[in-house]
Protein: DUF4219 domain-containing protein
Organism: Gloeophyllum trabeum
Amino acid sequence: VPVLDGLNWPLWSQQMKAYLMSQGLWGHCDGTITMPDTIVPTYKDGSTSQDTSAQEAWRLNDTKAIGTIRLRSSPAVATLIQSKTMAKETWDELNFTYGISSLASIYNELRGTVPNCHQGLICLNALPPQYDSLIQVLVQ
């Protein structure tokens, strides 16, 4: 899995999802594996005790998923998600920030589709009016 820098979200998210699936951790990111309720068994003598082993196992796996994501994130991306305490909220934040509708992904898609000559014309068009005569000469 490559390091997430923001611009490579489409590839990174697919590869990270596949890796987390192979480790049995993806459900923590998509929310299908949720924290189990505390089990409070009642014994024959009427006493009870809390069994938190299922919750502890869930927390351990959730932490593994977060750690895996953070290890394959650039320092700038890691700063964005450092306050997240659950894998689902970590993944959701990354998807919200870098997903399909993000400015970075739109730029990345458009960068490759605009021919160089059009990019030059766009730059020339952005110049202030005092450059109009120079632009006329360059365009001809």
In short: The mean pLDDT is 87. DSSP finds eight helices and no strands in the chain. The two ends are 48 Å apart (CA to CA). Residues 29 and 87 are 5 Å apart (CA to CA).
